[in-house]
Structures are given as structure tokens and as C-alpha cells.
């Protein structure tokens, strides 16, 4: 059933076009979340709404594009714009939407009573939404795995049929032009890095890791005997012009820098591959959450620009669950074969039933359906956090960093001690991490990393509200 | 249906009691294999058979005990001795039993035609019988796994309920007195060793590995930066009196030395733990195939003698399949907790569904039933190889080494080049490995390692027959 809503409950305060588009988008989000706008309801055309609000049509088009990308709206060919279906299997929002006034948190020892209620808000990063995995989908995958007898001598590259399916998946989702011979099934990003370090890095070799960057990457490389060199990133990601010429390998996250959230622009990508060509370094591209962008599509993988000098790592740990312990590595067939030959000596083996289950999730389309549902869910949670932390009352020096993507935001605290906020939030039942653990050296940014994978939308809202209150009280 | 066989088709040539017992056992085996004795048939009592054959009752009792242990016979309480049931799901013997004369292999390029027939005999070691895994058991385990939603934040120790079940399993099967806090779920023996090395070994530390010994253990320790010291073993296992005083860690296989097959006697076990106490070394006990003994029960695990200085490693890779990629580590609760804390930085994670599947296999009794069936199957294959290689015609200098246990035998070639036999066997379609790869230094024994996990009983027979022919032609 589709009904058209000419009376969209939106008002716009005069401002620049971007700000007005954001106002419209925020109010449509709130209207959907609070039930004022229902699934399948048709929105006014951009022309009509622009006329009603007295703004330019570009402002409305921009707002709609954002809401499309976040998954709130869907288009039907030739027939307009509609409120998208709420993803099945996800818990419906139980808390009142943020837009309505919320009672202030009681001053009593809230943290304790929340704990007693099992009501903690977990904003730790890197944890996908386990409850979002549809039980029927999960059962199907493992039922399939149980039907496959184990091989006597498992192929150290991974199951051939899974490698073929991964090559197809990477072609359609990331534009990689690869064959099964390029693909190794791994136990995830870190295990891929262990393997690469064993093959490419000799004790004492200098290897680069983004600063700030993924702590496990640093640890894996350090354990392989490498000397880890922190390589500065800014809001756009790694800075190629500052890279030393003597690195054996560079670990980088061009799609969505971890943790700061920048997307490496094309010019830097060219400079990065040129640097690798010139110095003989291998660039390891960790594409850990390219599946989750909520504004524009991701750029093609760096790997496509120069497969000779880049090794690509992907994982199901973010799209699905780290409990699966599976990922993939893409390199030249020669390097892939060499890595496969080293696995026995590294105790590096992906259980075959896990590979069969992943194969079933890919061939059935279940994994991609799951990713689409999660994209919508995470976009909502992200919007809830960002909305709360950019409202009037929060000092403007506390900035939200990073692209509209992924499963976390970074909040820059501009000199205010992060540990203090972490402790205050914990007292109110909200678990957040400081940013300093992502730095190998002295932190260049004080801040928090706020993950929204582990907590439901209502809990994310509550956590964001607690943080907003804490921040609003800080004298700046 | 049970019928009694008074007319057991056995003759005994006069010899010592042990030899006469072995003659009886061999003929009963052949009678069962060839169908002369059927499942459920009742054997004469030891008293009757001893009288019939004119031997002492001890001779017959010894023969029966051996056949019991190997799984050929079963007793029913108070009602005698019967031919055991052939394990369901195992292929029935298709080839004529070895006891009957076999036509010599044609001189034509046999290897090629066998290859064309997909008829190679794979006697590589370390591969359990994948086809022996009952499809229904496997399906049940993974169906259960599929019903368990993944956790958001998997416990790095392993699933608590699996650790509790493993503690019970290790208590009843190996007599270990442990709690769940002692147990870590691992990805297998090698991954347990990676973890221990990361926790206990600093670069340059000296660590001991049996010589000959498990090549992956050497490689894992070497990659951790250790200096690997070969420690001599003899027919009984490691020689504690020769161990240096400056080892940080010693990797050993006391239940069934890998690959030579000795079982460490009690005196040496005491000497070994005393050495560890005196020097401060940690002894790592790899109990990789203690489940498969075909004569007498295994000794209790070394771990039980002195839990303070011993870490115990077990695996499902031999009892079930390496495709599962799962094992367990038993250490003090403090060390286990410390190891668990290091796993993230080592990319060391056991997929949760795999843990749920193993839990289902343990709680249902399916794993132990499977082990019992495989014990019978491997005992038969072992007997087939040992029979073939100890018959008249094979030079007496070619000795079969090792206890009646496990999934392989070592054939000592006493100076004859192993590579030559490997090549000749390969030409006839039989894959065997030389023993030299188990030595870090110059091989002290020339020989072959013959695994019987990967090939069916008929194929094992054929492979053993090919080897016997090859050996019989060697001038000594």
C-alpha cells in the first residue's frame, strides 16, 4: 500500500544549502523512526517539496540522495520516492526517538542500576551486530556445511569452489579483476598479515603502519620481527609524500582509514602506488569495511590500480561476525601459491566446514542481503550518534571525524582528557574506548572511538545522549 | 545370531609362547577378513582352544587379548568371546585377504594405469580416514552449530561450555584432573605451540624438540625466534639423561613418540619431570594420538605427574579430521588466562561454530563412538602392513619400529636409500614418505614412514604388498 504524503512534517531554518539539506534529512529520519512516516509511504517529489519549503530544488535533491544512500528511502522506477522497508529481523526501536525531548538522566548511581538491569550500552568498536544475523540464514549455511564430508588433505589455498565464488563476489562488489588463482581463503585480516609477514619480512625489516592505525596489525608485524614505522594519516588517510623510501611493506586502510575514517582520494592513491613501484615496497590494502558506506559508493579498491605491488585483504568479520574467523587475500597467483605453501608451518588453516558455510552464504545471496540490511541499520545508528554529538549544547571544539561509513565514529576532544570521559561514561553504564590505543607513539589527537555495531539503535541513542550530556557540561 | 565355532581354522607351529600367540592371532585375523569367521560367531573358550592346539592356556589368552585390543573380538559378559561387528559405514574389504596367494604385480608400467584408474595408494602419514566419518554424525554436529547464534565478543579462552565438556572428556579418557579454567580451545597442536612460544620463548632462547620429531613443531618454534635444539629419542622416546640444562621449553610426544613410535616408560617420565623442575624448563606434552592404541591402554598423560611444569596439547585432527582445525591446551589457570589474553595479537581465534560442533560431538557421545570405530579400522590396517612387512622373504634387517598404536609405522631400511624405495613405490602407484624429513640434523635412521589413515584396508594391503615385493628384491 502506498499513500502519498504531501504534508511532510518538515520545517527549514534559513542557512546554507548543505545545512538546509541536513535539516531536511534529519527531520525525515526522525519522522520515519517515530512512525510519523510509515514504510511504503510516498514522499513528495523534490520539485513539490522545494516549492512547499521555499528552498531550491538542489537542497531537497541533496537531502533525498543522502537518505537514499543511508537506506531510509527507496525509489521505484518512474513512480517516485518511498519510505524503505524496515529490515526484517531487526529489533524495532523501543526507545522514543531522539527528536523528542528526553528526561535528563537521574543523578543517582545510574551505572550500577543499569548494570543490574543488564542494561549497559556497549560502544566498543569493531563488533558487528550479532543479533542481526537471521537465524534461518545461519542455520541454512551450517546445514549445508554439515552435508560436505571433510577432505583427507585440505587444500591450503582454501576450497577451490569458495575461491571461485570469492573471485566473483570481489568482482561484483569491489570491481576486482581476479581469478581463483589470485585468491587465498584466510582466517581474517590479521592472519593474512601474519602470512604476508612470514613470506616477505625478514627480522629487522622496516614496515609501515598507519598512525593512528590498527593495533593488531602493529602487533602481528612486530611479532614477525619487523621494525614498525608509524606513518602519519590525516583526515584523508595515509600521506604518501611522507612515506620513507626503505619500507618493505605498508599496511593501509584506503577505503575507510581505521580509525580516523578518511577515504583516500584518487591523487593519493596514485602517489601511493608510484611510491611502491619506486621503492619496491608491498602495499597491503585492508578493505575491512568497504561494504558499509552510507553516502556515496566506495572508490574501487586500490588493488585494481596496480595488482603487482598491492595485496588485498578482506574479511567477513565486519560484514557478518568475527566468530566466523574467515577472510580472503588477493595477490598474484605466484605469491598466493607461495603463501599457501607456508601455511602448514604457521599452523594456519581455515576449517573446511567454515569455508563451506561461507560458500553457501555467498552463492545463496544471503550474505549480500545481510550486508544490505546491516547497512541500513548501521546508517541509522551512525546518524543517531552524529546527530546527538553535533547538536547545540555540545561545544563546537568536540568534532566528529570521518566519512559517513563504517561501524564507528571518532570524536575529537581537543585537549580534554579522553580517559576522564571514558570513566564518566562508564559510571553511567556506557562503554567507550579512548583513541590513544590506536597510536604507536604519542597521540596526535585526543578523542574517543565510538562503535555502534554492538548496541541496538535505542541503546546507541541512549549512549549518545549520555555522552552529549557529559560533553555539554565540560567547560571550554 | 551366534554360532559357536569349535573348528577354529588355526594351526600352530612349535615356538616360544609369544610367537605361538602371534601365530594364532594372525590366523584369526585372516579368518575374519576372508569371511571364514563371520560377525557374531562365537570362538572356542581359551581352555578348549588350548587343549585342541596342544598349547598352554596362556598362549591362547595372550592371542585373544591382542585380538580384543585390536577390536577383532568382543566379549559378552558371562557368555564368551565373539567376532566383533564390522564397523558400520566402513567399506567392506574388496581385495582378497593377504593370506591368500596374490599374483605378482605385472612388470608393465603399473603406476600409470593405476593412476588412470584413480587407484593410487596414499600411505602418507598424519591423514585420518575422512571417509570413516559417518555423514549422519557430521550433519548432526553442524546442524547444532547452526542453531547457535554467534556471540558479539567471542571468549578468547573458547566457549565456556566446550571447555567444561573438554575437562570432562580429558578426565575420563586421559585421567586428567582439570577444571574448565585449565582448558583453552585451540586450533590444534601447532597453534597451541605458537601460543606457548609467544608467551614463554624470547628470541634466542634454546628450546628442545625430539630428534627425530614433528617438523611443524620445529618450524613453529624457529619462527618464534627460538634456537631449536634436537634432543635424541630412542625406541622408548625422549632420553631425559641427555637433555641440556638450559632449555626454556621441550616439545615431546610421550604417549607415542612421533615418528618412531615408542611409549615413554615410567622411569623416564619421572626423570623428565625432575629435569624440568631442576632446570625451570616447561615440558610441552603433545598427546596427538593417545586415543589409538591397539594392545594395551595408554599410560596416563605425563601432565598428571606434575601439572606445574607440563603443558598438555591435544587435537581432534587425528581422531576426527584436520579439516576441523581444533584442539585443546591444558595448563595452569594462570597460564591459560595469560595465553588467552595474547590471542588477539596472534590472530588466533577458533571459529565459534566449529566449537559448537565439537561440543555436540562430545556431548552426544558421537566422537567417542567414532574413535572406537576408527580404532578397530586402524588396528586392522596396521596389522595388514606389519604382517606384510614381517613375512618371510623380506630381509630381516628391514625392521618395523614402534608400538602397536597410532596411524603409521616406521620401517627401518638399515642403510638402503629410502629415496630409492620412495621412487620405486611411486612408480607402482604407492605414495610413501622417507623418514629423513623428521630429522633436523643428519638422519640417524634410514627408513620410511607409512601412514595407514588415508587409504582403505584393501588399498593398505595392496600398498604393503607392493612394498614387500620391492623390499624382497633388495640384495642385503
**Structure summary, number of beta strands of chain A:** 16
Question: What would the average pLDDT of chain A be, to the nearest integer?
Answer: 86
| Biggest β-sheet strands, sense, barrel of chain A | 8 strands, mixed
Task: Figure out the total of helices of chain A.
Answer: 14
- Structural class per helix/strand content of chain A? alpha/beta
Q: Name the helicity range of chain A.
A: 25-40%
Unreliable runs of chain A, pLDDT <50, ≥5 residues? 86-117
End-to-end CA span of chain A: 51 Å
Q: What characteristic shape of chain A results from the CA principal axes?
A: globular
Largest interface: A-B, 55 and 55 residues
Q: Bin the strand percentage of chain A.
A: 5-15%
Summary of the model, kept short:
Two copies of one chain form a homodimer. With 476 residues, the first copy, chain A, is α/β, with parallel strands linked by helices.
